[in-house]
Amino acid sequence: MRIMDGHCDALTKLYVNPKLEFGREEQELDVSYPRLKQAGVKVQCFAIYLSDSIQQPTFEHILQMVDLFYRQIGRHPGMHVIQTREDWHLVEAGERIGAILTLEGLDALAGNMMYVRILQQLGVRSMGLTWNYANWAADGVMEPRKGGFTRKGKQMLKELETMGIIVDVSHLSTTAFWELIELYNKPFIASHSNAQKICPHPRNLSDEQIKAIIQCKGTIGITFVPYFVDSANLTVPISALLKHIDHVCSLGGEGQLGFGSDFDGIEQWVKGLRHVGQYENIIEALCKNYRESQVEAFLYGNWRNFMLTSLPK
């Protein structure tokens, strides 16, 4: 079965440790070309995330990671960078794996709309508005004051809508989420978030948020972060992930559900999902609990439908 994964942080690991190579089966990389090939992943999103080790992130840091993406991933003979719908179709028609470049957190853009336009031209196709805390645009979900968008953040949101860059609300504060519903008129995604009803972590989505994403025909990427799956147990089995899938489906989200592993952004793993090459284990669990057509949609088809509507022609 084909797979699309909506979020990983392999770029950050490659940036922090220049000795790592995407094309080799690196033990430190959850997502590498050999492991993507092993799993049958057809499309992988790669996030630009500036870690806490960079105390004053700037646009130059983002450009360094864009350069790294094209040197390590874009130039790999087995990969093809997806920027348009035509690119997606080319990937589907061939043997190469598609790579979509995304941005996690607007912090280093410093409110400069020109930077957004430059990143669009460089191939960034989705932007997460915050990480866990506040930036110049909005509050993140862990910010104590629980605020929404700033004035400039609202301007940025309209700019993203006009430019057709996909908005990602994972990490966004609840207040900002509902402001976005009022301000933003296109489908959006939560690339790596689970159901709060099943696991009451602040990073997960409430039923009302899930319903809002379903209503706008967005996509929710079920994530493999263990403490977003089950915060009550140290060892989290794959079966616990299925509870989140069941719940989103019960709210009417069968057609809006995909996966966003967050591989390489985690230091704990769901049992049997230590790296992207082990997707076969979740496929096995899914096939025991859902129809084949449903499994294919969760793994690939729902993301495909969203992307072929949202990517530029």
Which features would summarize this protein structure in a list?
313 residues, 6-stranded parallel β-sheet, 9 strands, 41% helix
Rg (CA only): 18 Å
Order of helices and strands: EHHEHEHEHEHEHEHEHHEHH
User: What's the end-to-end separation, in Å?
Assistant: 26 Å
- β-strand number: 9
- Uncertain runs: none
What is the percentage of strand-forming residues?
Answer: 5-15%
**Residues in helix, %:** 40-55%
Structure class: alpha/beta
Mean of all residue-level pLDDT scores: 97
Our count of helices gives 12
Largest sheet: 6 strands, parallel
Shape: globular
Walk me through the topology.
Elements: E1 3-5, H1 10-16, H2 33-39, E2 41-48, H3 59-74, E3 79-81, H4 85-93, E4 97-104, H5 113-121, E5 124-128, H6 151-163, E6 166-168, H7 174-183, E7 189-190, H8 207-215, E8 219-222, H9 226-229, H10 238-250, E9 257-259, H11 279-289, H12 292-310
Parallel strand pairs: 1-2, 2-4, 3-4, 4-5, 5-6, 7-8, 8-9
Helix pairs in contact: 1-3, 5-6
Pfam family, one: Peptidase_M19
Protein name: Dipeptidase
